């Protein structure tokens, strides 16, 4: 890890690359592609729409009240979760303060065809939508759960 | 003495017996039969109607998904089709075990599709519909909500479970 000009740390410059990709990404796109930021927490893979992300920084031990560990908000229950490379993702909420969450094992942004996304089986959908999870992608034999932080926040406000 | 063309009483009786036997055979053939899939879950044998079970697949990876109830352990990928997995032990009151050596029974009835985790397969048999008895009124336990009847198999009474009842129980 090294510190950048703002005092924030990054892992081999990966976060700078991703942040630059986020900055370059046009805010509105059609349905022909979806740029997803991929990460995993506790060996479960997730993808979030890169359009929702405003900044990515390495976690520096910040204990602010507005900063959340991903597993605590996502119903991991009593599972012991280890973070190998904790990273803070700032989500554009469009309503007041941005949402900051600590995730793990961040990968690059990858482009996906929305046609490859599959909805959850009807049996599971009511449960997962409550936590902002809305779709499934398969990649290299792995299942990626698509997460919409805005949907999650809206759900928490409802509750 | 009876004329040669006249049927003997013994012939009449024998004909009647054969006619009855034939009728009985026809009745037996026409009796409606159903296929049932007998499986082991926990420490007991259970059965589903065969028409509700599309296939039995060997253990596959169950992808855990956050925020699901205990009886829904996650997702399974069946040749590219994503299905939900149901841990039926939760409803049967059977001991919870790992999923390492289990099988998945793919259940389909109308709009309901799911992979039901079972421990092992026992048999698939055709049985007369009349041999399915109503469940005992004294039947207790968590399984009661899922039972549609009881069948005799291998000198044992096996609980026949209804996929429709399972679907109704877990569909929100």
Structural class of chain B: alpha+beta
Report low-confidence residues of chain A grouped into runs of 5 or more. Answer: 1-12
Order of helices and strands of chain A: EEHEEEEHEEEHEEH
The amount of beta strand of chain B, in percent, is 35-45%
What is the end-to-end distance of chain B?
Answer: 82 Å
Sheet having the most strands of chain A: 5 strands, mixed
Instruction: Please state how the strands of the largest beta sheet of chain B are arranged side by side.
Output: 8-1-2-10-9
Low-confidence segments of chain B: none
Total beta strands of chain B? 10
Quaternary state, please? Answer: heterodimer
Q: Please report the number of helical segments of chain A.
A: 4
Instruction: Give the fraction of residues assigned to helices of chain B.
Output: 10-25%
Q: In what order do the strands lie side by side in the largest sheet of chain A? A: 9-3-4-11-10
Radius of gyration of chain B: 23 Å
Largest interface: A-B, 20 and 22 residues
**Rg for CA atoms of chain A:** 15 Å
Global geometry of chain B = elongated
Q: Shape of chain A, please?
A: globular
Mean pLDDT score of chain A, rounded? 81
Percentage beta strand of chain A:
25-35%
Descriptive notes:
The complex is a heterodimer of chains A (159) and B (172). Chain A has 159 residues and is an alpha+beta fold. Chain A has one domain (2-158). Chain A has 4 helices and 11 strands, in the order ββαββββαβββαββα. In chain A, a hairpin with a 2-residue loop joins strand 3 and strand 4 (44-49). The N and C termini of chain A lie far apart (39 Å). The relative contact order of chain A is 0.19. In chain B, 20% of the residues lie in helices and 40% in strands. Chain B has helices spanning 9-30, 89-92, 163-170, and strands at 33-41, 44-49, 53-58, 74-78, 81-87, 103-109, 112-118, 120-128, 147-153, 156-161. In chain B, strand 1 (33-41) and strand 2 (44-49) form a beta hairpin. Chain B is elongated. At the A-B interface, helix 3 and strand 10 of A face strand 5 and strand 7 of B.
């Amino acid at each position: 890890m090294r510190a950048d000009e703002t005092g924030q740390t990054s892992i081999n410059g990966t976060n700078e690359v991703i942040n630059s990709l986020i900055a370059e990404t046009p805010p509105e796109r059609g349905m022909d592609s979806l740029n997803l930021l991929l990460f995993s927490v506790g060996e479960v893979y997730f993808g979030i729409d890169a359009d929702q992300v405003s900044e990515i920084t390495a976690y520096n031990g910040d204990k602010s009240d507005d900063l959340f560990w991903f597993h605590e908000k996502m119903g991991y229950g009593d599972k012991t979760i280890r973070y190998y490379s904790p990273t803070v993702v700032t989500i554009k909420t469009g309503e007041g303060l941005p949402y900051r969450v600590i995730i793990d094992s961040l990968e690059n942004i990858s482009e996906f065809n929305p046609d490859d996304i599959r909805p959850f089986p009807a049996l599971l959908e009511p449960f997962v939508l409550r936590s902002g999870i809305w779709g499934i992608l398969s990649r290299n034999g792995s299942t990626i759960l698509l997460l919409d932080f805005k949907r999650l926040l809206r759900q928490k406000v409802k509750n | 003495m009876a004329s040669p063309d006249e049927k003997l009483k013994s012939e009449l009786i024998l004909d009647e017996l054969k006619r009855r036997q034939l009728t009985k055979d026809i009745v037996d053939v026409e009796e409606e039969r159903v296929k049932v899939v007998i499986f082991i879950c926990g420490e007991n044998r259970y059965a589903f109607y065969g028409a509700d079970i599309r296939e039995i697949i060997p253990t596959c990876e169950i992808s855990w998904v956050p925020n699901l109830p205990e009886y829904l352990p996650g997702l399974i990928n069946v040749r590219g089709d994503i299905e939900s997995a149901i841990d039926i032990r939760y409803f049967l009151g059977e001991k919870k075990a790992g999923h390492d050596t289990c099988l998945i029974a793919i259940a389909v009835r109308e709009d309901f599709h799911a992979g039901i985790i079972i421990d092992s397969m026992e048999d698939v048999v055709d049985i007369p519909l009349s041999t399915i008895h109503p469940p005992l009124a004294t039947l207790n336990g968590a399984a009661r909500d899922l039972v549609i009847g009881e069948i005799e198999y291998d000198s044992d009474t096996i609980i026949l479970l209804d996929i429709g009842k399972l679907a109704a129980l877990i569909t929100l």
